[in-house]
Amino acid sequence: MAVETNNKLVKWIEYRLPVFSFYRHFLVEYPAPKNLSYWWNFGSLAGFMLVVQIVTGIVLAMHYSPSATLAFSSVQGIMRDVNYGWLLRYIHATGASMFFMVVYIHLFRGLYYGSYKRPREILWFMGVIILLLMMATAFFGYTLPWGQMSFWGATVITSLFSAIPVVGHAITSWLWGGYAIGAPTLNRFYALHYLLPFVIVAAVALHLWALHQHGSNNPLGIDVKGPQDTLPFHPYYTVKDLFGITIFLIFFCYWIFFDPGALLNPDNSIMANALNTPPHIEPEWYFLPFYAILRSVPNKLIGVMLLGLSVCVLFLLPWLDTSPVRSGKFRPIFKQFFWIFVIDCVILGYIGHLPPIGPAKFYGRIAAIYYFLFFFVILPFVGWFERPKPMPESISQAVLDKKAKRAGTEKA
Amino acid sequence: MERVMRKFLVAAVVLLTLGVVRPVPAAAAAFVQKSPPDLSWSFDGPFGTYNQAALQRGFQVYKEVCASCHSMDYLHYGDLSALGYSKAEIKAIASGYTVTAGPNKEGKMYKRPARPSDAFVAPFPNEEAAAATFNGVAPPDLSLMAAARDGGPNYIYAILTGFNQKPPKGMFVPTGRYYNPYFPGGRIAMPPPLTANRVHYADGTKATLDQEARDVATFLMWASHPHLDQRHQLGVKVMIFLFILAIVFFFAKRRAWKDVEH
Ligand code: HEM
Fold this sequence. Notes:
The complex is a heterodimer.
Chain A: H1 8-16, H2 19-28, E1 31-33, H3 42-61, H4 71-80, H5 85-112, H6 121-143, H7 148-159, H8 168-176, H9 183-214, E2 230-232, H10 233-258, H11 288-295, H12 300-320, H13 332-353, H14 358-385, H15 395-411
Antiparallel strand pairs in A: 1-2
Helix pairs in contact in A: 3-5, 3-9, 3-10, 4-5, 5-6, 5-10, 6-7, 6-9, 6-12, 11-12, 11-13, 12-14, 13-14
Chain B: H1 2-21, H2 52-64, H3 87-95, E1 98-101, E2 110-113, H4 127-133, H5 145-148, H6 153-161, E3 178-179, E4 187-188, H7 209-224, H8 228-256
Helix pairs in contact in B: 2-7, 6-7
Bound molecules: protoporphyrin IX containing FE.
Protoporphyrin IX containing FE binds near residues 57, 61, 138 and 193 of chain A.
């Protein structure tokens, strides 16, 4: 693993701080399973989006004023007068949506292939912590442009804490720094919005550290048996990730350049006004499934608790899923409940967008029940009853089998 | 077991979608808000750009009609160069307005003609004064109107051309309010601002109601999205670059993985 070089400077540094061997170990030689599918691209995409958000965010911060009187017009200044300010803001604002989309796919990938199972539990926990931090960051960020939806979204979400018995109202006024959302709230949300992404960077470092301890899971969900099952990260996965990022950028740039308005709420082009409540308050799409769960419960306190549980249940996954088999490929029953779960989340998102009346309310409840049923009943029980399909000996064996089969069909 | 599961899945999906798609029953009131028409605009689509003649006509409508009620706080007279006006023309436009500046060396505020670097002069000194004139509803600032409403320019066009229709039976429209089926609630505090020949276009275009509404909607779209042309042009270049890059990486990947069984 030592670095072979004659470069004096490299040797000098390497002897004192082994950055070069660290780099080789993590990004060049790191052995990755050779059968990773394109679903494994979403981890590097998430890392890419974090960098994009931090870089554009820091430049935006140079032009933004976090004061209740100036915030809205400073964002207009960015959009109109700062050179390429519109580009920065559209990258950052639609980037938040892209970041969530990528992370949600990454998460569902982990769910399907059992990536949270032994020995990757801590890796999974770090992922859930990153998700929670991202949610907080996006929530704080969304208040910054100080439009109507910024203001009223923040009002609705922070008011949830008032449901907590006894101390609820004390907590909300502590969060607000006053008796309502106002100038002090904007200031602290800005401070936190600047801070949290760097906490996410630290959490990502732990996430990767844990990843490199046991290596990536893979579509077969079986352990790597030896070098014949793996490939060095470079060049195989570096080039694959670069290809993936380019395809992703085409998608991302479509929104930035041709339809940025689709991901921004029109009400946020009206400056925050405490005296004028918009008729329809709704969070960004990436919070809608959770919002639907919240609203499907008539009791506010229980609604808030279920909202928290709906994300935190992910921490319990390694214990809720009782099956010893990782990959959904070999789990015929789990696989179907999994896809129902994916559809259920989409339906919850759609219902979160509708006014909570009539059939939307009824079906919202059914979808919310399935959401929890999936974690607390289906996962434990299916693990006990399901008979998994036979699994290949090893990754390289599976590759050979697949090739033999393909050759067979070609002859036939 | 698998068959049963699949049936369950299909049933669940059908049931859930049926329930969700079913429309929410409308409230008892007879008024139903109309959705704006889907017009075609020169700035639609990835290659869309603003038409400068339309922008100038739209600005004329704003200046001669809307500006007596609506402010546009985020625009400066100098921004009008994007509409194709020359420096001298912009100076002339600006000098038609008076701004309060100062304090001068004696500590006094004074009046002077507006300059290109000044923001558009608002018709009312403050929102309260504006509201007092219109039964308590101030005309909103128009700088971001095309971004602040669903439908953008289509909505603006619909509002401007949606007057003079008969309200549904039993709907009460008080004085100072006007029936407009595109406005939420149907009763808007804005008197119908446009009629045919409300302005006289210098370029000879016939000033029909439809034409005036389209032109001013185009102008307001530009006011909300002044960099749309630049955004579309850069976007097309970026897309071409990314497509080429994707092809390059695709073949690079194929080559790197050529000898690997996977
Ligand atoms: C995890 C990464 C991040 C996420 C998910 C995120 C998300 C967001 C969101 C959703 C908005 C509102 C955008 C809008 O509707 O206009 C926003 C605004 C903003 N963010 Fe971030 N952000 C991140 C990182 C950062 C960082 C690191 C900084 C600064 C160092 C930053 C600075 C800003 C500023 C100044 C604004 C206000 C300007 C604007 O609204 O466009 N962000 N952010």
